[in-house]
Amino acid sequence: MTRSLDINPYVLECHEGQRFELLGAVVVVKAGTEQTGGKFNLFEVACPAGFATPLHIHYAEDVAVFILEGSLTVFWGDEQMQAAAGSYLFQPRGTPHGFRVSGSASARVLYLCIPAGFDQFMQERVQLADNSQAMVTAARYKIEILGPLPDGSEEKNTTLG
Q1: What's this model's pTM, rounded to 2 decimal places?
Q2: pLDDT one-digit tens code per residue, 24-35
Q3: Which of 64, 112, 118, 127 is deepest in the core (most CB within 10 A)?
Q4: Kind and range of the H or E run holding 132
């Protein structure tokens, strides 16, 4: 039996929402699982210059990213491309992906996950200092961490934006 959630309209101002730091990025939850009845999560993520995610796969959710500021080198398996502010990226579940902030400026993105649940993973991940515990937690949320991003020395210069 599924619990019925009350979903109400709401407004968050520019810097409002649950805020935490994860792997050096500042994440603000704009739409959590409970707020959307499990339909989606929306995050605003501020990433410092040089920030990089690991190469990973989401098996439970599709991910969409809109770059508000800065630029990213985006990795999809063996492919790499540059994406500037204003670019939109869609990463269907099952796609190996990650990104690195390009250049000397920071980046800010909107990160959308459908369906919801990724917010719960990130909140648990913040509490973990041990990398092996992080891998176990990721697996529980159907996320596979493949390792660090390629170093970019063989970067293909496909550009978005």
Answers
A1: 0.84
A2: 999 999 999 999
A3: 118
A4: helix 131-140
